[in-house]
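Issue 218. Parser rejects a valid record. Input:
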Amino acid sequence: MAFKKDSWLVRGVLIVAVAAFVAVPILFAFNGRSYNGGANTASTPTAADQTTQLQSTVEAYKKVLEREPENETALIGIIEAQIALGDLSGTVEPLEKLANLKPEVPEYSIALAQTKQQLGELEGAAQIYRRVLTQVPGNVQALEGLVALLVSQDRTEAAVGLLRDTLTTADQTNELSPGSVDKLSVKLLLGQVLVEQQKYDDALKLYDEAIADAQAASPTLPDFRPTLAKALVLQEQGDKAAAKGLFDQALSMAPVQYKDGVQQLINEKTASPGAATDSTPPAAPTTAPETSSEGNAPVAPPAE
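Output the parser choked on:
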């Protein structure tokens, strides 16, 4: 079974990463930094001007790489410019170089895997995700990417097996490397896959475990995500009364920077059929990459 078009996992609603409520692919974090080079110019550049500037930026950074093949700043600059140009394939080579140059930085490898996944190179993407998980067991972004890839291939049982194996070995992994596996996040992702399989009872049982885990981990301010996840399942099953109580709890527990996003999600899921809903996108967390128009501005070329 493929994910639904409005799948919670694909939309990033049941975000696995602890640090964010709105999921943002790592790849686009490269283009999330503000560009100040032209911020004070008198006029706004046209699309053609921006394209020309971005192309010049790519060429300038390539010249830097001719002199310094391992210049990390130049490689990132090319990636950012190619993303702004809409040339995803143009990011593959510099991402591969970064991943090989900095194997201790899994974000580079994950960004490469995400790129290959979007370009349809699924086997290559899967190999990279698995390599990251071998090096950093429990990396939530790699798990999320590999699970989404498996489910998109109608391999939900493989996704379930991967996540259950991760949970089975989590305590041992965390003994060797404390904090490597966030069991709560893995349970949330597993619950999502169970929901996609329509195994609602299994998912609800897992969410109850996750709610108890969250309460035990932080009695005064437990993680809101498993409560929200359970509410979404109950709402989908038609138990609106029970869902409402959990929606209210999740909203009250959510950190202030995520409350607007949670409230909008609740509004969307509880709206009557045909009712108009607020189309304003959820507020992004302060830790997430920016997605404003500034994020697509040209990247400053290196100094000549």
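Fixed in the parser; the record now loads. The mean pLDDT is 81.
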